[in-house]
């Protein structure tokens, strides 16, 4: 599943390759990819055609492109969604779901998605605290990489929750964009076990944890994002390489990069959590 740095890589790619271009034709090859656009695939194609794509934007892992008509084209990458920019006439990908052709006859935008958990939709823009957002994204909190992220408010919100710290990190209404991989990496850097209670976390420790989350994602972005899924590639079809520098995620039984203790893997919400038993002791009780 793409995490925030990967989504940011895709956003930058879209901004570079499609912003300012006018849509000439839209072809929906699989209706499931448009299921979140409730009026249906034909309505999606008709309303998108003729619009000029403006800036590509992101809130957490949600991605959209502003349209000249005032709405936004919202993209959910789901588990395996890819946005590809391909020359007109290039062979169709096996799992091509939506094709957008442009009036300039330049490279077309393709939404490719093997597992079809992702999709595209048109959405109305609403104002939330002075920021225009597509309506389906209005409840999503800012992510720690967002220049307008309010760290003090996020720390206070985190400490008000009566939950475990890893669950809180993954709660998109509290802090957005932190997925399983970066949550584990941030917890390792902060020397916290994910089962620690948020309401017993000191203010300084909570602030440190969020700063680590932002830092690890900035580092990943610098390296083109993390990729554990061969299906994930960015807008130009290149995979990320950050996985080589992860400290704990995916490193069960390998030595902790700080103390050498073998990394432990524990089940977590149908997935896994990775941590160092020595640097991140499990809370008592
Ligand atoms: Zn360790």
UniProtKB/TrEMBL annotation:
Residues 247-281 form the FPG-type domain. The active site is at 2 (schiff-base intermediate with dna), 3 (proton donor), 61 (proton donor), 271 (proton donor). Residues 2-118 form the Formamidopyrimidine-DNA glycosylase catalytic domain. Its EC number is 3.2.2.23, 4.2.99.18. DNA binds at residues 95, 115, 161. It catalyses: Hydrolysis of DNA containing ring-opened 7-methylguanine residues, releasing 2,6-diamino-4-hydroxy-5-(N-methyl)formamidopyrimidine; 2'-deoxyribonucleotide-(2'-deoxyribose 5'-phosphate)-2'-deoxyribonucleotide-DNA = a 3'-end 2'-deoxyribonucleotide-(2,3-dehydro-2,3-deoxyribose 5'-phosphate)-DNA + a 5'-end 5'-phospho-2'-deoxyribonucleoside-DNA + H(+). This is Formamidopyrimidine-DNA glycosylase. It comes from Saccharothrix syringae (Nocardiopsis syringae).
């Amino acid at each position: 599943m793409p995490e925030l740095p990967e989504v940011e890589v895709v956003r930058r790619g879209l901004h570079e390759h499609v912003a300012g271009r006018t849509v000439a034709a839209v072809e929906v090859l699989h209706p499931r990819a448009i299921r979140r656009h409730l009026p249906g695939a034909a309505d999606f194609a008709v309303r998108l055609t003729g619009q000029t794509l403006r800036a590509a934007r992101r809130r957490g892992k949600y991605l959209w492109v502003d349209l000249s008509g005032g709405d936004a084209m919202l993209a959910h990458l789901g588990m395996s969604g890819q946005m590809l920019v391909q020359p007109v006439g290039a062979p169709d990908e096996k799992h091509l779901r939506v094709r957008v052709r442009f009036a300039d006859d330049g490279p077309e935008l393709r939404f490719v998605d093997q597992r079809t958990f992702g999709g595209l939709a048109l959405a109305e823009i609403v104002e939330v605290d002075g920021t225009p957002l597509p309506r389906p994204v209005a409840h999503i909190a800012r992510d720690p990489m967002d220049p307008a992220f309010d760290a003090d408010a996020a720390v206070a919100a985190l400490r008000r929750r009566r939950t475990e710290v890893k669950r809180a990190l993954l709660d998109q209404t509290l802090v957005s964009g932190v997925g399983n991989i970066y949550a584990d990496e941030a917890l390792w850097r902060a020397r916290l076990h994910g089962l620690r209670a948020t309401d017993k976390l000191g203010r300084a420790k909570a602030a440190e944890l969020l700063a680590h989350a932002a830092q690890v994602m900035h580092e990943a972005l610098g390296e083109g994002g993390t990729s554990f899924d061969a299906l994930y590639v960015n807008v130009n079809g290149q995979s990320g390489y950050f996985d080589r520098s992860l400290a704990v995620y995916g490193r069960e039984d390998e030595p902790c990069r700080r103390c050498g203790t073998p990394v432990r893997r524990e089940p977590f919400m149908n997935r896994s959590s990775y941590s160092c038993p020595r640097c991140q002791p499990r809370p008592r009780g």
